[in-house]
Design brief:
The protein has helices at residues 13-24, 69-74, 107-117, 122-134, 150-159, 161-169, 174-177, 184-191, 200-211, 222-235, 278-285, 293-301, 372-377, 381-402, 406-409, 418-425, 439-442, 469-486, and strands at residues 5-9, 28-32, 44-47, 50-53, 83-85, 88-94, 99-104, 216-218, 239-241, 246-252, 255-261, 266-268, 271-274, 308-315, 325-336, 339-348, 361-368, 410-416, 456-458. The chain is of the alpha/beta class. The strands form five sheets. Strands 7-6-15-16-17-14-18 form a seven-stranded mixed beta sheet. A five-stranded parallel beta sheet has the order 9-2-1-13-19, with helices on one face. Strands 10-11-12 form a three-stranded antiparallel beta sheet, covered by helices on one side. Helix 1 packs parallel to helix 10 (222-235), helix 3 (107-117) runs antiparallel to helix 4 and helix 4 (122-134) crosses helix 9. The longest helix has 22 residues, at 381-402.
């Protein structure tokens, strides 16, 4: 029997995963990508010898033998790449009070440091540390798709049984949970560890994984990770066409039959998969014709990950001994367009010498910002460049105050705005991980199909609330499992 043909929109991680598992299971796949390289948001770029890494802060469940590590291995993500395990999550530094707290892999040390700052919160600190410790040994397998039937759901519940009690007990937003802490510094530290609106149980998972030696990153940065999966896909016989923007999903009698590119060319296929932006897919490529109330509700009411302003510097000096991840509470708010922010994340890539020339270091500041103002401003290129330059200069002043001499060592400055994210990835309103990790979003299972449309499927962060790299990868894997069931095939990872 001839292979079914499949076109996949987008060569981000979800599209690459879909392509890899599609090829492993006998589908003839071809990916069409808007950009000039694979990876989507999981990307990096070079300027004058410095690598500007746009994505991976840490990868979860990296330890060999873990439930999710097998997916990394099936996709070849670490092949010819060196995996570096982390022992530090972030240093929170309040410049006003000059207080600092390190969140590292040693939970006993973390507990002692927290109690030294806030002895009045000892009981709450013990509870917080216990949550992290209990989840340190937790295996995090990919969830089973509900489309495989009740048995798959029961299997997922059983595999996640160690996490379920924490999901139930601590299924409250971080900013509500931290109200139990009397010390305002400790409260703010925990609030800003990741996202204040997400369930606190996720914080336990991340810090638990750090303590359990499960968090890592790839030497050489995010693009090395994406390139490895793209190579795996092409070794399996998959095809990718770059600079190929999809403008329309072709539909005949409520069946997806192919795609039309921006150059007018049409490609027909038995199956169409969009691993691209969800809003563009549903409301533009399909013209908003295949909707129901739940889809409208999501796009009208669900909050998104806020867009980022990312400023990367190439510094001709070393920062040995400095913590690689720092969260800085600023002494006074920094104005970005018509908004203000009181904190910024700072990454010091002193742990990866491959990202900079010898004796040099990449520094990167990220700040949350709005979307509409940047989209309007980019229409005036001179004003857009002036605002980027102004903010980059003010941020550099802050960094120089922390690490004197930095300002005079800068050789390269690169600024990525929410418009940059949209221009290269088409992500809706510049949201780098899609739906925010709210209680409603995390409890909702979004179908990978659209109502009334056959032969069409979606993969990626817009059908896997919470975003991030593991969901992108297992989204593609689970989609192919669903198709194999429909086509009466036995799902395989042959050749891995």
């Amino acid at each position: 029997m001839a292979e079914k043909t499949m076109v996949i929109i987008g060569a981000g991680l979800a599209g690459l995963s879909t392509g890899c598992y599609g090829r492993m299971n006998g589908y003839k796949t071809h990916i069409y990508e808007h950009h000039t390289m694979p990876g989507g948001v999981c990307t990096a770029w070079k300027r004058d010898g410095y690598v500007m890494d746009g994505c991976i802060h840490w990868l979860m469940s990296c330890k060999p033998g873990s439930g999710f590590r097998k997916i990394y291995d099936e996709l070849g993500a670490f092949r010819d790449n060196r995996l570096m395990f982390l022992d530090h999550y972030v240093r929170f530094h309040d410049q006003d009070s000059d207080q600092a707290l390190d969140f590292g892999s040693d939970l006993d040390r973390l507990a002692a440091d927290m109690k030294a700052i806030a002895p009045e919160d000892s009981l709450s600190i013990d509870e917080f540390i216990k949550g992290c410790r209990d989840l340190a040994a937790l295996d995090m397998p990919a969830p089973e798709p509900r489309e495989l039937g009740m048995g798959a759901g029961v299997k997922s519940l059983w595999e996640m049984r160690g996490f379920l009690k924490y999901m139930i007990k601590y299924n409250v937003p971080v900013n509500q949970y931290t109200l139990r802490f009397k010390n305002l510094f400790i409260r703010e530290c925990i609030n800003k560890l990741f996202l204040p609106d997400m369930p606190v149980s996720f914080l336990f998972v991340v810090l638990g994984q750090l303590a359990g030696g499960q968090l890592g990153c790839v030497e050489g940065g995010s693009q090395r990770f994406s390139d490895a999966i793209a190579r795996r896909y092409q070794e399996l016989g998959g095809e990718i066409t770059y600079r190929a923007s999809v403008e329309e999903i072709l539909v005949e009698n409520d069946r997806a039959v192919g795609i039309r590119l921006a150059d007018g060319s049409e490609i027909k296929a038995d199956i169409v998969v969009s691993a691209a932006d969800g809003y563009s897919t549903i409301f533009q490529m399909l013209g908003g014709k295949y909707l129901d109330q739940s889809i409208r509700h999501r796009f009208e009411t669900w909050p998104l990950f806020k867009p980022l302003l990312m400023i990367t510097y190439g510094a001709a000096r070393e920062y040995s001994g400095e913590k690689a991840a720092q969260l800085i509470k600023l002494p006074k708010p920094l104005k970005i367009l018509n908004q203000e922010t009181d904190s910024m994340h700072l990454r010091i890539f002193n742990y990866d010498a491959s990202l900079a020339p010898s004796g040099c270091t990449v520094l990167q500041a990220t700040l949350e910002t709005g979307y509409d103002g940047w989209i309007d401003l980019q229409k005036d290129s001179a004003a857009y460049d002036r605002e980027k330059e102004r903010i980059a200069g003010e941020v550099l002043q802050i960094i120089d105050g922390l690490f004197p001499g930095t300002k005079d060592s800068i050789e390269v400055t690169d600024v990525a705005t929410p418009y940059t994210w949209f221009y290269y990835t088409r992500n809706y309103r510049g949201s780098y991980e899609g739906w925010l990790m709210t209680k409603e979003a995390l409890q909702t299972q979004i179908p990978k199909t659209l109502p009334g449309l056959q032969n069409f499927y979606m993969a990626g962060q817009w059908v896997e609330p919470g975003g991030g790299i593991p969901p992108a990868l297992y989204s593609g894997r689970n989609l192919i499992r669903i198709l194999c069931k429909q086509d009466h095939k036995i799902f395989t990872v042959a050749g891995s």
